[in-house]
Amino acid sequence: MSMVQESGCRPIQPNNARIEEHPCYSEGASHRYARMHLPVAPACNMQCRYCNRKFDCSNESRPGVVSGVLNPDQAVKRAWEARQRLPHLRVIGFAGPGDPLANRERVFATCKPLRSSFPDWHLCLSTNGLCLPESVNAILDHGIQHVTITLNALDPEVGAAIYSWIFWNKKRRRGVEAAHILLEQQLAGLSALIARGVLVKINSVLIPGVNDRQIPEINRLVSEAGVFSHNIMPLISAPEHGTYYGVMGIPGPNEAQLQQVRSQCGGAAKLMTHCRQCRADAVGLLEQDRQAELNRSPVEDSRVIPIHRPTRRDPVANPPSPVVLAVASQSGERVDTHFGHAAFFRIYRVTGAQIEHLGERFVPRYCQGDDQCEDKDHTLKAVLNLLNDCQGVICARIGFVPWQELLERGIEPVNSHADRPVLEALSHTARLLQDKHAIPTPKVAAAGMKGRG
Fold this sequence. Notes:
By secondary structure, the chain is α/β, with parallel strands linked by helices. Helices cover 29% and strands 20% of the residues. The protein has a nine-stranded mixed beta sheet. A six-stranded mixed beta sheet has the order 19-18-15-16-17-20. Helix 8 (215-225) links the parallel strand 9 and strand 10 (229-234).
């Protein structure tokens, strides 16, 4: 029995403007027509382990990344400005930074004036699908004819390895239960959209060793359901992004692995291979993103909510402020200790090229195992309290939970200097933080300090 309800889908005409003018639905269109993602959706109703919406770099292109969140009025103003600069603009998309259907009022409030002012534009939306079935009528009412659903697993056991939690019926759900609920919602929403003539694209993030065997089955199922296109995207996994997979060192697929999985997908859904895994505030052609230019528009001067503060300072007018860093190093020469294994952290103050050793700060050991840290909240809290005045923590390795907790406290975890000289790691990290933030002068706590400092 099919997992997808009978769709009664309408046939898609090959010359349909909905396809021929949409850069994601037609590779030819991607060279001729521009799209614009309006970042009006800050909240998300689930946590995928490949996603961290808090990280942003103006030069980075990655799903979920934005430099600022707009309200509906600001979004419409930005669209008007884009219209002046990009006469070949045809598509307005809602792709984050959270899930558009977890922010329905903001998204639909933006759609209404856009639909009225620009009837020749195509509106589209990307969603995780959790709130999709109850949103189908509103999607149609607001003129959205393109919907992308991210579907990574059909087996809830596999889904439980990809999603940390979902927020469902006012409760946080985890594990297989969460993955099962999500899958039911995704498939019900998929059927309802296709039955009403919406062009549906499926995104699947390929995570080697996790869902690579699921994706051909997803391709078969969604093809039978009448999905137009299937986009199999490689996992983006870098430690500095702060995602679970990045922090845990789980790599994305190489090109051969990606092509192998694609070759196993023989369904009727057209495989999308020109995806650029765009930001949630992307603007322009797929190959020529102009978001940085549009983000400097006058709209930015009003009440845009910045995701991060400016990342560059004038070195003359604003000389580097001192940075206090903690280093997990047993030897004192190299970065050689796991965060959770550290019995003490070496504390340094870095001011420009000057590095001052302030002493050692002894902490309870958070992790007792060799390879995995346990979730010991009280111990972790004690460690973090002792490091609370530091701007960064440098260590050889670190688990995902302490990584997240450090970020929550505004402390930068750094694990990219494993087995490198301590002084080199300190200099590099201090420069990174000074470039990234306007760091206030720190106040180093005396409690717990022992040694030369």
